Amino acid sequence: MTVTNGVHVHKSVPSALPLVQKLSKDHDLVLKTFRLLIADLCQQFSGGHPGGAVGMAAIGVSLWKYVMRYAPHTPDFFNRDRFVLSNGHTCLFQYSFLHLTGYKAMTLEQLKSYHSDRVDALCPGHPEIEHEGIEVTTGPLGQGIANAVGLAMATKNLAATYNRPGYDVVDNHTWCMIGDACLQEGVGLEAISLAGHFRLNNLTVMYDNNQITCDGSVDLTNTEDVNAKMRACGWNVIDVEDGCFDIEGIVSALEQARASKDKPTFINVRTVIGLDSSVAGTAVAHGAAYGTSSVADIKTLYGFDPEDHFVIGDTAREFFKGLPARGQNYVQEWDQLVKNYTTEYPELGAEFQARVRGELPADWQKYIPTNFPEKPTASRASSGLVFNPIAKELKTFMVGTADLSPSVNMIWPGKVDFQHPDLRTNCKIDGNYSGRYIHWGVREHAMAAVSNGLAAYAPNTIIPVTSSFFMFYLYAAPAVRMGALQHLQIIHVATHDSIGMGEDGPTHQPIELAALYRAMPNLLYIRPGDSEETAGAWIAAINAKKTPSIISTSRQVLPQLTNTRRDGVALGAYVLSENESASVTLIGVGAELSFALEVAEKLKTEKGVTARVVSFPCQRLFEQQTLQYKRDTLRRHQGISAVVIEPYAPNGWERYADAGISVKRFGHSLPGKAAYKFFGYDIETLTAKVADYLDQIKGGELLRGEFVEL
Amino acid sequence: MTVTNGVHVHKSVPSALPLVQKLSKDHDLVLKTFRLLIADLCQQFSGGHPGGAVGMAAIGVSLWKYVMRYAPHTPDFFNRDRFVLSNGHTCLFQYSFLHLTGYKAMTLEQLKSYHSDRVDALCPGHPEIEHEGIEVTTGPLGQGIANAVGLAMATKNLAATYNRPGYDVVDNHTWCMIGDACLQEGVGLEAISLAGHFRLNNLTVMYDNNQITCDGSVDLTNTEDVNAKMRACGWNVIDVEDGCFDIEGIVSALEQARASKDKPTFINVRTVIGLDSSVAGTAVAHGAAYGTSSVADIKTLYGFDPEDHFVIGDTAREFFKGLPARGQNYVQEWDQLVKNYTTEYPELGAEFQARVRGELPADWQKYIPTNFPEKPTASRASSGLVFNPIAKELKTFMVGTADLSPSVNMIWPGKVDFQHPDLRTNCKIDGNYSGRYIHWGVREHAMAAVSNGLAAYAPNTIIPVTSSFFMFYLYAAPAVRMGALQHLQIIHVATHDSIGMGEDGPTHQPIELAALYRAMPNLLYIRPGDSEETAGAWIAAINAKKTPSIISTSRQVLPQLTNTRRDGVALGAYVLSENESASVTLIGVGAELSFALEVAEKLKTEKGVTARVVSFPCQRLFEQQTLQYKRDTLRRHQGISAVVIEPYAPNGWERYADAGISVKRFGHSLPGKAAYKFFGYDIETLTAKVADYLDQIKGGELLRGEFVEL
Predict the structure, then answer these.
(1) What would you report as the CA-atom Rg of chain A, rounded to the nearest whole angstrom?
(2) Chain B residue nearest residue A487, CA to CA
(3) What is the CATH number of domain A364-558?
(4) Fewer CB atoms < 10 Å away: N or C end of chain A?
């Protein structure tokens, strides 16, 4: 290995590489076997991404054989090192090592399912968390590296909370493989900056520096001094010049990384994409099979039989053979350690084991107030009233904000920041790794993506809570999606929803964003209407063990309503004010729920129209109810028209309402009440619109069944 | 000025600053006047963001008085320097200088409208492009700096295309003010990397380094060596130690920046947030008025009368007086230059002037094929057939991709890359600034945000075209939104839509994303069904002069259909196959349009059910049609049920259909056809579902008007 301070090398011609082949005979055979396996796997269905996986072979051997602590036969071993393949399209790299190292589910037959039409394949086009040995689902670039930062933070937090002298019950390392893209994607850059700030010395990023992207040379679009940039971000940097063969050098770099005192480590490994194929060192090697004759040529070059496919010889099998047993040793040592720890620290040990099992104390709801002050309260403040006592008591929750502490009300008395303790001396920043309040900075996307990593450490061991203005969850959306896709429990507290947030104007008023989150599978988007419903929103979110939630709250004060019910929120929608002979149902939502009640009152007193009111905080929870409940709640089958009042794009409400008083354009910068008035959300205008609508339905100018925006 | 190589200073205590007060008497008075104006403007309605604007006063004086070339009385002067306030919450900074320098619309009365309930205020909570003197709408952090990169690229491209010796018809500079957030947000970091790569020496970023964010000290979340990071990204770095007072030093730094030979410049200006207020140097100064007594105290300190408000004395007025006249000189010189240029280069001059007016040649549609090969074609390929001939001929289009050149088919014969010409020598990368093909790298968010800047340079002078997989327009969404909000014409080519994209799996299959873009105001989301409709999609997008579009295309081949019509796309939806006595309308969309036709056929032959088919490429265009057209197209008022076939979340289709064959969960990694089959999108299953639905409606088990997912 050559450790240099050298900068990023700009040439991508393989022949320019100093190919120091420090290879044992076994290594040579194992690397060849691995590379041919990848070539064959792509060739069978003539698709997939061979080049990167082939180029990274020596990195994989170094990791799985010599450095990484894991247990193929106990894949969920709690204190295992985590491996994240952030360049997820090279998934065959990981799948093949899972097979070779003895993960039971990954049989050779399963390995061959890559790109097949087998519905239960364990080898999808990108790694998926559901499958044995996969820590996080990757694919969308930049997400994995951010997840890895979260996994490393989880270790730091659990270690600082539970480790005691002689008992390092949590001390695993996180290894993350990246390609060029993770150094280009904003979410990756945000996460890199955070990892440096938090001084995560238990995180190593290995950069597959093959200088090739889909478009061609990386120099087409990126000519930075990447090592200098990483150093400026607070990382150790180690160069490996011959990443295709120099296993000894890579192992040494990885071990240096694990021994790092106070910085995360970036290992810049020079590799050749599609090594030894006819397209080696070119973009063509990235996303297409080599072709039958090229694969045959490599086999000949390597001294293999061109007619044989998927060959894993005895020497290669032997090379990996002892790994499951080694893994079980780790497991047994750790089990014993935890047993002794629990003997010495019974209370802490019990708490730790409950955390390992992902359990909250059964009586966690006792921390939620049973009732609230009667004064009008912004639901962002209600959210603090409901949740901060829980956060204070239960270490499961790690709570953070994208630089909006004064706005989101997530600080509990005595909260401690998650920080490296040395920042106290250097920058007068208090905190330590057992702290559970995270200053994410103005990095909404990384906030959500790193939180996915915190949640993925082990099921429900840590429940991350993020917070920002609702509008900026559009920045975070790709990561919110990845949380939902992976069935991770994460709670996003989104304040300043609706045009009622006021002066900040159209750039901050989330007209269309609810449509996205209501459509996103496996996500609860909940808009509570007062403190009581906010309690319901939190209960629903904390009970959703495999589903992330967004709790969407108001900047402005809302009246405390009399008939709202926290258990109603769990149903998605419920009748707030019934009237057997109603001629219209008003659907009220979140910050505008009280408007529906006021309009119902005014319709009665001024227009002689009888209205009933349904509170509708969450469409997805409502969809989970029975058809009967849904009909009884909405009563549209009885011919009662429903009008929804929400200053958002109406998309999706057409399923539940016949008309919407909605907003079809971007917002307007005005004080909250003036903004409401500007868009017709004063009680007088709303009442007139509903009455007028009913007249038009009666007069036949409008047809029921044709959704109308009023 | 102190130019040092010193790194980022971590202390935020104002008294620690070396306050070298190199102030002329006039400067002193002007700075005080400006700072009090900001304090008064926030105090009147007790809200807003005073601290940053106050801290940046000397930067503003340096820019508007001494360095920036602009014309207050001709705000849209084509060759003006562009100023972008990326930290948009400090908008009073810009509004106040617009007033002081003589922009006519920004009267003192208008200035006072900040945070008022005046509906036609020119002082919204963040700068808005609609208003005189504002180049781009900012607010969502990180967007502005990316826009600035686009503005600088626009200058480079127009200059390289049209300038001739002695005739620099385009040579303006772009100045961008940022706070800490733009150095934290991923989109900002992506844009910074691009600006360094493209060596945009006509771009200067001024960093208001006050070391304070909402949460407190920047050190809470960011302890990078920011100057070293910027250098690693290819930027010049200049430090200004006393940014509150050292106008001479700031001017010198700005002039150095304008003279930079081949790099963008980053000026790290140390300032104090809320200078001289009781909350100076603290987070409290960021987002709240100082309070009446604090404002009075500052007035006393400055020798002003505490009872007087909004005071702009004669000396301050005099200081800015000559700027409109200076501006008109720039305008006249440029007008004369363009006149002489057009005399010497008549053809080029005429073309340039048409570009300035934002005009395309009237006959641009002639480049679009009138018909297409009959063989099945992926609509991503159709898109290339339609658009690449236009891109080849018309310099208005700048076309780029987020590292997916081989997938998106946007390369025309002879295309030249937009690159700094020196990369040819250093990295063997061909291209120059007149090139119009942009390798954005794996930076979808910056691709869209920088494109907003390209489009904002002047209305329709450049029409940016971006491209990536549809799913990754979720990464780009905040910038796509800002394009729509600003009425910028940008065309996003989103390929690999629908589950039909196959093996890449659920991370790449955009189940819920269409719901976002169909709900987003002022955006056309168009899914064409074959080559003919793809022509229609492009025509609609190119005709939408104030609206961005997403053209959403398939990875997989689609049959060329017989009755599709490009002019039908302009209507949003149209009848593809009519049948007077139909008992069901099948709505077909994009890649699955042919499924609707096949199902209709099978319903007839196998179930004896008569179906009509509507092609529905764009909901927003359809909404713009008359009620009569909409009813005639869908015929739901005649009691005919409509079933939409689209493998997306159905949200929004409930307005047009009674039932949807949709997808309620995330996707699955399978080859395209197998993925369709897995989700029931084979013709047999689809047909059975429609027939079954009709039976259930007939039998009363389902009620019309209750939207059902089949």
Answers:
(1) 28
(2) B666
(3) 3.40.50.970
(4) C
For residue B7, what are the CA distances in angstroms to A264, B11, B36, B190?
21, 12, 32, 22
Residue of A86, A149, A185 to mutate, testing the B interface (most B Cβ within 10 Å of its Cβ): A185
Q: Would you tell me which CATH number, out of the four given (3.30.450.40, 3.40.50.300, 3.40.50.970, 3.50.50.60), belongs to the domain A14-326?
A: 3.40.50.970
Cα of B63 vs its chain's centroid, Å = 25
Of A85-99, A442-456, B412-426, the one with minimum mean pLDDT is: B412-426
Q: Is the pLDDT of residue B18 over 60?
A: no
Statement: the pTM of the whole predicted model exceeds 0.80: yes
CB contact under 8 A, A443 and B139: no
How is chain B split into domains, by residue range?
27-326, 380-558, 566-709
The pLDDT score that the predictor gives to residue B181 is 96
Q: Give the Cα separation of A600 and A615 in Å (integer).
A: 13
Which residues of chain A are within 8 Å of residue B417 when distances are taken between CB atoms?
220
Tens of pLDDT, residues B515-534: 999 999 999 999 999 999 99
pLDDT band of B8, cuts 50, 70, 90: very low
Kindly state whether A217 is in contact with chain B, defined as any CB-CB distance less than 8 angstroms.
yes
State the pLDDT confidence band at B23, using cuts at 50, 70 and 90: low
The architecture in CATH of the region B380-558 reads: 3-Layer(aba) Sandwich (3.40)
Give the whole-angstrom CA distance, residue A144 versus residue B510.
19
Give chain A positions within 8 Å (CB) of B113: none
The CATH number of domain B566-709 is 3.40.50.920: yes
What residues 648-677 of chain B have any CB closer than 8 A to a CB of chain A?
649, 651-652, 654-655, 664-666, 668-671, 673-674
The pLDDT, as a whole number, for residue A425 is 84
Spatial contact of A540 and A526, defined as CB atoms under 8 Å apart: yes
> Does B425 contact A at CB distance below 8 Å?
no
> What's the start-to-end Cα distance of chain A, in Å?
70
Identify the CA nearest to A587 among candidates A574, A601, A568: A574
Q: Please state which of the ranges A416-425, A620-629, B1-10, B584-593 shows the lowest mean pLDDT.
A: B1-10
Q: Which CATH architecture has domain B27-326?
A: 3-Layer(aba) Sandwich (3.40)
Cα A264–chain centre separation: 21
Strands B659-661 and B641-645: parallel
User: What ipTM did this prediction achieve?
Assistant: 0.96
Question: What is the per-residue pLDDT across B651-702, written as a single tens digit (0 to 9) for each?
Answer: 999 999 999 999 999 999 999 999 999 999 999 999 999 999 999 999 999 8
CB contact under 8 A, A186 and B181: no
Could you check whether B27-326 and B566-709 share the same CATH topology?
Answer: yes
Mutate to test the interface with B, among A468, A507, A697 (most CBs of B within 10 A): A507
* Catalytic residue list contains B512: no
B307 exposure class (CB count in 10 Å sphere: 0-12, 13-18, 19+): exposed
Could B423 and A655 be called an inter-chain contact, meaning their C-beta atoms sit closer than 8 Å?
no
Other CB atoms within a 10 A radius of the CB of residue A140 amount to 27
Cα dihedral: B151, B153, B155, B158 (round 10) = -130
Q: Is the predicted pLDDT of residue A322 greater than 70, yes or no?
A: yes
Beta strands in B22-157 (DSSP E): 82-85
B638, closest residue in chain A (CA to CA): A703
Residue B348, Cβ density class (10 Å: 0-12 exposed, 13-18 middle, ≥19 buried) = middle
| Amino acid A23: pLDDT | 67
What was the pLDDT predicted at A428?
Answer: 86
Band (A103; pLDDT cuts 50, 70, 90): very high
The neighbour count for residue A373, using CB atoms within 10 Å, is 11
> Does position B13 have pLDDT exceeding 50, yes or no?
no
